[in-house]
Amino acid sequence: MTTVPNQPRDRIAELIAPLRVRPGATVRLPKDFDPGYTGGISDKEAGVELLQRGVTMLADLQSRLAAQQTDGLLVVLQALDAAGKDGTIRHVMSGVNPQGVRVHSFKVPSAEELDHDFLWRYGCRLPARGEIAIFNRSHYEEVLVVRVHKELLDRQRVPRKGAVWRRRFEAINAFERHLTGNGFRIVKLFLNVSKEEQRKRLLARIDRPEKNWKFSEADIRERGYWRDYQRAYADMLTHTSTEHAPWHVIPADHKWFSRIAAAAVIVNALDGIDPQYPVVDTQARRELLEVRDALEHG
Ligand code: AMP
Ligand code: MG
């Protein structure tokens, strides 16, 4: 039983299929995923209605998820700087009830966080049943920024250093399997921006005064490690796209398309949960009617 008609569901499934990273596949970047892909949709105008429909479906599904209180959803957002993580969150979540959604932005870890195992701070911010949690950066930074800048690993004081990335992939897969086995779906989105488009967006952060606050010298420094990041991302996609928690690579050079695609993957995951408003049983319904009767005549 569901209110979502089949046609948009099929359209959504069709739209996101090419973005999914097949578990077990070896990913090469930038070769395997085109940041400029737009799924055959001609332009922004053609995409507006599609995004609106996705946002509406998401609002309905989120409301049911909150009412049903059995499952939760974790949305993991990863990207290089200026790929559009913040804008994606703002647009895609524009229709949902803020009470049911939490956004957590992960920054450089604190001293307390560094005193724990590498998954601890993420584990503390997981969604509850009925909730959607969005990780703006996530446990995946532990195999991305920490891999590109190995001095960060020293700060973590891990005892055994051998095969550290392979062991982290395994730990992450086990962590996510534990969650999915306990009623928490995981949507993992990599917003894939090209180096040229990132250059334009960083320039805009300098040229447009209202964007100056977003500019960070660190972004320019990190851009110098572009190839290392592409390699780390490709290896992450290769080792952590699983049947229980697959990655989707969201083409991010056209913001309008990346928002449609992100909404589509999230709607598809919620639709898979198929949350329903709880229905009261006959006895409870009878009691409700008695109360109603009393209210009406009192
Ligand atoms: P932003 O998302 O632009 O606010 O930047 C957050 C910064 O925190 C980025 O430079 C990330 O590389 C950094 N960061 C996030 N997670 C980690 C981590 N686990 N270890 C080190 N740096 C991190
Ligand atoms: Mg930034």
What does this structure look like?
The chain has about 300 residues and is an alpha/beta fold. The chain has a single domain, classed as 3-Layer(aba) Sandwich (Rossmann fold). The protein has 13 helices and 5 strands. The chain has helices spanning about 5-15, 45-70, 85-90, 110-115, 120-125, 145-150, 150-155, 165-180, 195-205, 215-225, 225-240, 255-275, 280-295; strands at about 70-80, 100-105, 130-135, 185-190, 245-250. It has a 5-stranded parallel sheet with strand order 2-3-1-4-5, sandwiched between helices. Helix 2 packs parallel to helix 12 (about 255-275) and helix 3 crosses helix 12 (about 255-275). The structure holds adenosine monophosphate and magnesium ion (MG). Adenosine monophosphate binds near residues 106, 107, 142, 146 and 218. Adenosine monophosphate (AMP) binds near residues 106, 107, 109, 137 and 141.
Element pattern in H and E: HHEHEHHEHHHEHHHEHH
% residues in beta strands: 5-15%
Strand order of the largest sheet: 2-3-1-4-5
* CATH hierarchy class name: Alpha Beta
Quick tags:
single chain, 298 residues, alpha/beta, globular, binds adenosine monophosphate, binds magnesium ion
Summarize the structure.
The chain has helices at residues 6-16, 44-68, 85-92, 111-114, 120-123, 145-148, 151-156, 164-180, 195-207, 217-223, 226-240, 255-273, 282-297; strands at 72-79, 101-105, 132-136, 184-192, 247-251.
What order do the helices and strands come in, and which of them pair?
Layout: H1 6-16, H2 44-68, E1 72-79, H3 85-92, E2 101-105, H4 111-114, H5 120-123, E3 132-136, H6 145-148, H7 151-156, H8 164-180, E4 184-192, H9 195-207, H10 217-223, H11 226-240, E5 247-251, H12 255-273, H13 282-297
Parallel strand pairs: 1-3, 1-4, 2-3, 4-5
Helix pairs in contact: 1-12, 2-12, 3-12
Bound molecules: adenosine monophosphate and magnesium ion.
